[in-house]
Amino acid sequence: MGLDFSVVPPYLDIILIGALWTVALTVGAGLLSFFGGIFFALIALYTPAILRLPFRAFEWLFMGTPLLLQLFLIYFGLVQMGVDLPAFVAGLIGLGLHFAVYNSEIIQASILAVDKGQMEAARTLGFSRAQALRKVVVPQAVREVVPPIGNNMIALLKDSALVSVIGVGELTLSAQLAIGRTYRPFEFYLVAAILYYIVNLGMEAVLRRLERRIRLAR
Amino acid sequence: MEKNQPFVEIRHARKCYGDLEVLKDISLTVDRGEIVAIIGPSGSGKSTLLRAINDLDPLTSGEVWLEGTLVNQVLPHHRYEKHINQVRQDIGMVFQHFNLFPHLTVRGNITLAPRMLKGLSSEEADQLAVDQLERVGLLDRIDFYPSRLSGGQKQRVAIARALAMKPKVMLFDEATSALDPELVEEVNLVMKRLAEEHMTMIIVTHEMAFAASVCDRVIFMDHGVAIESGPPDRIFQNPTEERTRAFLSRHLRNS
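Above: the input entities. Below: the structure tokens describing the complete assembly.
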């Protein structure tokens, strides 16, 4: 049985809608993981042990266990506790938190790498530590993390395929639906792979522009 | 001429790092409009003393007063933060390594604190930036990022940034030590102009010639002690203390 791509066009709309969901999921979870990463980094670096230690446990949970299991916990596990999240929201939260923990590590290192003189200069002008962090230290730290966090975003895009198992109609699940009707796995998985790759290229282009803009502003 | 009450006063300042005592019971007063240089070898504690004035390096014991306000008050954390952030607005500080904010333009560097802390509108803050940059002769650099400025220009912008808070006193922590020799003069010139405007200044410096030409008084420190203090003519030409003499002869030979 050779390849026959004529089976694809009738399902192209389903596949493209799936691709759009993948983009929505990646952008949404990406933003969540970025701002969550900053938030977690500030907790890890600047809060007393009573906040920091529970956070460490939470961080360990997200770094030391499979993402798939985390998605199951959030989607199926929480139902038992009376929290019935839509699959898309559960996927968004799962991916977002998972990558926020990784981003937090990067952002912590980057905050610590900002010259101590920056905080001193800001404090000397009369800023509180929180104000100095918000206006002086964190904006500088964030500039340095665009490349490594960009890598995490690309990993996030690829891992977003996992949420197909909790029934989010993203690209992988759409391909599976089409395969279920046509029994043509090779063609549809190939089309899905190409679409992932195209989204990936788009993301890389956005990241490159972002890096360029940051470079120009110094 | 009537005698001013002390404007800045340090009483029995002591500072220890573990067993190491870097400030040993130092007291000094600075009058309004007075310009004081602190000189001495590296590790003598002069920067530590300067940084104690705005409580950046808190003293182990002793008091710092600014115009009748106790700077290093012992308060519960939250109230201390409020107090010190208010007091620091009145104490401008210039660092050896400039510490400009690299992610902001010159305008952003100067206007950030007045906008956020004094609630100036962006027009008011802009005008303030223009005024202060005219004072240091860098108005044409207002939209530059710090990375595009020379060391001397960076330090002049740092001075403008401190002046924009309208401080009562300016602290200079080796403001020209990190500069190439040919860039020192432009910064000295700006400081001289401030002296002519009777800004109260406390200057930690290695530049004896500058101290001699600008300051009203020179304090020589060694090993955490203020060895002697007096008008620059007397300290430089006729020091009474042996250690001062030794330091000066060593320093003049090297420079």
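Note for the figure: The beta strands of chain B are 8-17, 20-30, 35-39, 61-66, 69-70, 91-94, 169-173, 200-204, 217-222, 225-230.
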